[in-house]
Design brief:
This protein is an all-alpha fold and 49 residues long. It has one domain. The chain has three helices and no strands.
Length: 49
């Protein structure tokens, strides 16, 4: 039987796993801003990180 504590633990584990799969762009850039940058600018942002 799953207790309330086990349920909360499973939810926290899932949250951590999904958080690791989230898209992240360097320097806190939003996706729209990142896509608007040229490949050279994206490379510069990546090295600044």
């Amino acid at each position: 039987m799953i207790t309330k504590q086990d349920y909360i633990l499973y939810l926290l584990i899932l949250l951590v796993l999904f958080e690791g799969c989230a898209k992240r762009y360097p320097l806190g850039t939003k996706e729209e801003q990142w896509q608007a940058l040229s490949p050279q600018q994206q490379a510069e942002h990546t090295t600044k990180q």
